Amino acid sequence: MMMEEIKKNILVVDDEIYIRQSFIDYFEDRDWMVFDAESGESALELLKTQACSAAIVDIRMTGMDGETFIRQASKKYPDMVFVICTGSPEYETSEDLRQCPNVADQVFGKPVTNIDKLENTVIKILADAKV
C-alpha cells in the first residue's frame, strides 16, 4: 500500500486544548490535514461535513466519552480508524472495541512521549484497513 493512497486526514478528539494543539502541530508538520474537536459530540457533528480517515481519541471527556464516540463514529463511518490516547493508566479497552478491526490494539498514554510511534500506528492501521 503506497502512502499516497492513504488520505491523510486526521481528527483529534480531546477536551484539553494543549494536547489537541500538540497533535495538530505534529501532524500538520507531516502534511496531515488535521481537524480537532473538544468533545465526542462536536466530533460527530464535524464528521457530518468533513471526512476523516483516522481519529486520535481521548477516553475521559465531559459529556460523551471516547468509547461512545468511537462506537457511534465507526458505525456511521466504517472506513475510519481510531487510536485511543488516554491519561488514565488503569484504562482497559472494552471488549467490543478490542474486537473492532478499526481500533488500534495499542492504547497510548498521555502525555504521549513518542508521537512518531503514534503516527506510525495510525498509518499502519490505515494501510491494514484498506486490505
Key features of this structure:
131 residues, five-stranded parallel beta sheet, 5 helices, 41% helix
Q: What does this protein look like?
A:
The chain has 131 residues and is α/β, with parallel strands linked by helices. Helices cover 41% and strands 17% of the residues. A five-stranded parallel beta sheet has the order 2-1-3-4-5, with helices on both faces. The longest helix is centred in the C-terminal third of the chain and has 15 residues, at 115-129. The radius of gyration is 13 Å and the shape is globular. It starts with 8 loop residues before the first strand and ends with a helix.
What order do the helices and strands come in, and which of them pair?
Elements: E1 9-13, H1 17-29, E2 33-37, H2 40-49, E3 54-57, H3 66-76, E4 81-86, H4 95-99, E5 108-109, H5 115-129
Parallel strand pairs: 1-2, 1-3, 3-4, 4-5
Please summarize what this structure is.
Helix content is 41%, strand content 17%.
Distance between the termini: 9 Å
Strand count, sense and barrel status of the largest sheet are: 5 strands, parallel
Average pLDDT level = 92
The strand order across the widest sheet is: 2-1-3-4-5
By oligomeric state, this entry counts as: single chain
In DSSP terms, counting alpha (H) and pi (I) runs of 4 or more, how many helices? 5
Number of strands: 5
Poorly predicted sequence stretches spanning 5 or more consecutive residues? none
Following the backbone from N to C, one meets helices and strands in this order, namely: EHEHEHEHEH
Radius of gyration: 13 Å
Helix content: 40-55%
What overall form do the CA principal axes indicate? globular
Strand content: 15-25%
